[in-house]
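Worked Example 4.2. Consider the chain below.
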Amino acid sequence: MTNNNKDLESRLWGAADELRANSKLKASEYSIPVLGLIFLRFADAKFSEAQKQIGKQGKGLRSSSSNKERYQAMGVLYLPEEARFENLMNLPEGENIGQAINDAMRAIEAENPDLRDVLPKTYNRLENRILVELLKMMGSIPMDMEGDAFGKVYEYFLGKFAMTEGQKGGEFYTPTSIVKLIVEIIEPFHGRIFDPACGSGGMFVQSARFVREHKANAMEEISIYGQERVAETVRLGKMNLAVHGLAGDIRQGNTYYE
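Applying the procedure from the previous section yields the following structure tokens:
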């Protein structure tokens, strides 16, 4: 990652953390909505890129299943109009922004069954002024960033929120450097990967990077399976996969007993 991207991560985190302090919210109440907006910004950037490639032929077919399949065939989440980031940015003053973002998340889930009941829909708990600033902040992320760079912003926030919240209830966020080391040792060139305590899915993301660095298509070479005890963390893991253009089967359960 370039220094510019590292500076961007640091700047975004500083702004987000300042907003959290002013909101009087706990990190645990704030982290999921913020990560959801990073996810939405990434999904919108990928959708816009695919829209350009599809070109004029795709116009007028936005709501048709055939057009939706064209986006999905490109590995892109299909976004209905009400879920476009620009539309949320341009909501009129006085609009219930929390409700609008919740509706956008529901619309994305309706069009992308793999994300059903995954995306956060608690934005009505945040004040309008906080949401306006968060949308502006996410809107400052350049649209031409590579997908992996978006993923690294997401991972950076995951790690920072984990440090802010502390280690509670036996939950620990494994530093990315440790996960990378494990992946380099196991060398997951191909096959099935199962993580029985997958957390937010870092092992899967790093395994996919390993495959790509060896000039292969991750989704053709590896199959992802994970188990995680905490429902909220399962959702984070599924969002993390989607941010990185991955798909897998992550289920809630205590691996010791199930």
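The chain has two domains: 3-146, 167-252. The chain has a mean pLDDT of 87. Compare this with Example 4.1 before moving on.
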